[in-house]
Amino acid sequence: xxxxxxxxxxxxxxxxxxxxxxxxxxxxxxxxxxxxxxxxxxxxxxxxxxxxxxxxxxxxxxxxxxxxxxxxxxxxxxxxxxxxxxxxxxxxxxxxxxxxxxxxxxxxxxxxxxxxxxxxxxxxxxxxxxxxxxxxxxxxxxxxxxxxxxxxxxxxxxxxxxxxxxxxxxxxxxxxxxxxxxxxxxxxxxxxxxxxxxxxxxxxxxxxxxxxxxxxxxxxxxxxxxxxxxxxxxxxxxxxxxxxxxxxxxxxxxxxxxxxxxxxxxxxxxxxxx
Length: 274
Description:
The chain has helices at residues 2-13, 46-49, 58-70, 81-90, 148-155, 167-175, 186-195, 224-239, 242-251, 260-265, and strands at residues 30-33, 76-78, 94-100, 109-124, 141-144, 161-164, 181-185, 204-219, 271-272. Helix 3 packs antiparallel against helix 9 (242-251). A nine-stranded mixed β-sheet has the order 6-5-7-4-8-3-1-2-9, with helices on both faces. 37% of the residues are buried. The chain is an alpha/beta fold. Helix 5 (148-155) links the parallel strand 5 and strand 6. The protein has two domains: 30-117 and 213-272, 3-Layer(aba) Sandwich (D-Maltodextrin-Binding Protein, domain 2); 119-212, D-Maltodextrin-Binding Protein, domain 2 (3-Layer(aba) Sandwich), CATH 3.40.190.10.
């Protein structure tokens, strides 16, 4: 019996390790997002549930459809915006949505797919001249923290910048007249004002500072083959009409105020998947 066992052990020692002949399944792209309505959000207003097809943001929906085309699970992790950017910059195999492509960020990420283009616009309160950024250089101006808008203002030497973790906070500050101006993509301004029950009529829409191109981006060293899969996925959903359907659904969306109690329920990052 001992001899038999010994022979069996010797024979097994010459076999390849279990699974050695099979190629390991590539780890799927880790997708990160933040509370950036109407592009991505965890805290939908009541009207979202009442609008067929609308789920968690325009860019979220587009990327989720792209994920189906590449065989991705569609799992998207919501984190604070600064943390999501840091991880995508410093760790491999990470995707991030919805990131504005700017000169400051150009060499920090791999830009996979432009999802939507908006206007980065300067808005002000009543009586505030927002015909150009220089008109508000000495006034308190709200921006989204760690955004392209904040980077632009700092690059131009602005000193009275008031960064906020989420855009609805800038809308609230505008209501309270604690900031005189606000620099953000137009859609985010409109959505955030509705979120806090504000009226767009009290804002002055001024200079369009630049186009705001919203992307699915990724870690700088993402392999070419993986990048091409996502690029082709966007082409596919545009070709079959899925992309336009999503845009149409969000164009029909009526935004209603979000209660503060609901915001508190989503105060910690959570996982969302489809």
